[in-house]
Please model this.
Amino acid sequence: YDWSQITDLAWVPPQRVDVICAAHAAGVRVLLNADDVSLAIADTDFRRKWIAKQVDLARSYWYDGINFDHELPAKMGSDLALNYTALVRDTATAMRQLNPHAKISVDVPWAPFGNDGRDYDYVGLAAAADRLFVMSYDMQAQIFGRCAAAANSPLPQILKGVRQYLDLGISPSKLILGVAWYGYDYPCERDEHGTAPEAHIDVCLIRPVEYRGCPCSDAAGAQRDYKDIMALLRSGRNTTSLVWDPLAESPRFNYVDEKSGAVHQVWFETPESLTLRYALARDLGFRGVGAWNMGSLEHSEGAEPAARAETSAMWGVVKTFTGGP
Model:
C-alpha cells in the first residue's frame, strides 16, 4: 500500500495483527468492521452486549474506531431506521470512553432517497458518526430501464447522489466519496430477435436478474478486481479497444470467453476516470475519498513490472484529492 495516501484502513480482521501493526507504524488508523448488526439494531439488550464486545475488541487489538456497513432495507422513520442511528450513537459513546479520539464511520448508499430500499436516518447517522462513507458504486443494482450492461459509477449519478446528501444539510466535511477499484464483467445475451451478440457490440444486453423488486440488476455480471481486468487487457484477448463513455465518464471493453465463446462486456474505473471523481470530491469540500477495495490492486512483491506500474498509477491519482507531486 501507499501508506502516504491513507489516513484510515477499515475492515481489518483481528487475525491480521501484521496489517494493524504496519498501519500504525505508518501513522494510519485502523477501524474494526461492525459486521452484521441486525440483532443489535432490533434488540436493546443484545445491543448493549454487542457494543461491549466491540469495545473489548478495540481494546485487545488496538483498533482506532469502527466502521458500520449495514445495507438491509428499512423504511423511512421506521423503528429499524431509528434504532440503527441509536446503535451508531451508543457505540460511538462507548468507543470514546475507551479512546476519546476513536473514529466512527458509516457506509451509506450512493444516494439517500429510494436506494435499494435503504431509507435510513441519514441526518441522524451523520450526527452520530464522524464520517459517512458514500458508496458511489454498484449503481446498476436496480435497472428499471433497458436490461443492459452499463457503468458501475456514472459521474452524473455520483454528483446527483452526493448533492442529495448535501441538500439534507449534511456538511461535506462529514462525507467520504467512496469509489470502486473493481469492475463488472457481463456476459452479453441474444437480442429480442434471437441474434447472438457480435464481439464488437456496443450495447450488451444482459440476463434479467431480480433484485429487491427490480427485474434487472448488476447481479447478472460478476465483480472483477482491477488487477484482473488489467491482466485481461494485457493478454490481448479484448475484441474492442478501451471505449470511453462520454456520459458516464467511464471506460468499457469487450472480450470473448475462451471456453464458452460468449461475448462479455467489462465496465470499470481507470486512473483517468477516477481523477474526475477525486476532483469532484475535492471541489465539493469533502472530508476525504476512499476505495473498495485495496485488495483489488496488485500489491504482491513478485508482480510483473506492468502490473506494478498500473498499481502505482492508481495510487498516484489519489493525489488529485490529497495533493502532492
In short: The mean pLDDT is 97. The radius of gyration is 21 Å.
